[in-house]
C-alpha cells in the first residue's frame, strides 16, 4: 500500500517546546475539551429526550453536536496526553487515522451546516410544503448521504497521501497530523498531489461557504413578508447559523484554499476550528434558542425530582 516508505513514525513539534507554555497548553486544551464534551452532551441528551425538539432542525443539530464531539476528540485528547507525558511521536498508522477522522468529521460538519440551511430555507420560504419536503424519511436520507459523502472525501485524501513515499526527516511542525505538513515530508514531487488535495478540501470549503451565504441572504430577504413575531424568531435562528458558519469556514478556507505553504499562525488557527468552534457551537445554539433552553430546564427539573424521590 505504501511506496518506498521508510518512515514508521513522525515527531510532532506541537504548539510549543517551552515547559511553562506546555502547562498552559495542557490546561487550555483540557478545559476546552471538557467544555466541548459537556456542552454537546447536553444538547445530544436534550434533543433525544425532549418531544418538543422533534423537528428536522433539531435532528440536524443533534448530528452537528455529534460531529463537533468527534472532531475535537480526533485531536484534543492526544495533545493533552502528549503534553503531559512529554511525548512527541506518533506512529505512521496513527497519523493516517488522525488525518482521516479529522477530515471526516470536519467535512461532516460542513454537510450538516448545509442541511440546516436547507431546512431553514424550506421552513421560511416554503412553509406550506415544509412537512412534506422535510419529512423524517427525507431528513434521515440526507444525513446518511452526508456521512457517506464525508467518508468518500476523507478516503480520497488518504489514498492520495498514501501514494507518496515518505523518508527522513520525519518532523511535523504541528500539533496534529494534517495533509499539508505531511506533503512537505514526502520524498517526491508533490505538486499534482497538493493540487488535488487543495482542490478537494478547498473546493468543499469555498463552494459550501458561498452556497450557505447566498441561501441565508435569500432567507433573510424573504422574511420581509412575515409577521413581526415570526420574523424575529426566524431571524434569531438564522443569525445563530450564520455565526457558526463564519466561525467554522473562515479558518478552514484560510488553511485549505492556498498552495502547499505553511505559516506560523496555522497552528493557532487550527486550534480555533478543531477545539474552539466545537466549544462555541453549543453555546450559540443554547443561548440564542429559547426552545433548547426550555427543554434543558425541563430535563434538569425532571432529574432533580427523580433524585428527590430517591
Automatic annotation (TrEMBL):
Sorted alphabetically, the Gene Ontology cellular component annotations on this record are: plasma membrane
From the UniProt annotation, give the residues forming the signal peptide: none
What range(s) does the G-protein coupled receptors family 1 profile domain occupy?
A: 39-285
Q: How does it sit in the membrane?
A: Multi-pass membrane protein
Report if keyword Cell membrane is assigned: yes
A GO molecular function assigned to this protein is: G protein-coupled receptor activity
Q: Does the record bear Ligase in its keywords? A: no
The places in or outside the cell where this protein is found are:
Cell membrane
Q: Which residue ranges does UniProt annotate as crossing the membrane?
A: 24-45, 57-76, 96-118, 138-160, 201-223, 235-256, 268-287
* Role, per record: Putative odorant or sperm cell receptor.
Member of which family? Belongs to the G-protein coupled receptor 1 family.
Protein name according to UniProt? Olfactory receptor
Source species, please?
Vicugna pacos (Alpaca)
Q: Which gene encodes it?
A: LOC102537293
